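BUG: 3D viewer hangs when loading the predicted structure for this chain

Environment: internal workstation, default settings.
Expected: structure renders.
Actual: progress bar stalls at 90%.

Input used:
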Amino acid sequence: MSRRVRTHNAGKGAKYTRSRRPVALVYQEETESWPAALRREAAIKRLPRAKKIALIQRAGSEEPPPPQQAESDTRTC
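Structure tokens produced before the viewer hung:
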């Protein structure tokens, strides 16, 4: 995972993260296989913001959740 974070912070990752640097890993979990990891990632992406923040907090992450965005900003996690 550290290699993936370094790649994103170098501007070589997904287009979405290129304009939102630096990125920080705030949550991770192990899965039994790569396809299972992709399914879990998709499920997490569909969660509402509040549930994502709760997931991070329950995991005991040392990183604080990102600050709330202004109401005029329509982007979501």
